[in-house]
Amino acid sequence: MAQRLATEYVNATMQLTEFQMNQFLLTADTCYISHRVKVLGGGEQMIVLEEAGGEEVCLSVERKGDIHWCTLSCRVVNPHLNNAVRKLFVTYKGTGTVNRIYHGFTMIYYYERGSVRRISELTSSGSKLIYQHKHSLSEMMNLYKSEAIEREIEELRRNVDRLLDRRNALKSAMNPDDIDGELAFIAHRLLFLEA
Question: Which stretches are annotated as coiled coil (predicted)?
Answer without folding.
Answer: 146-173
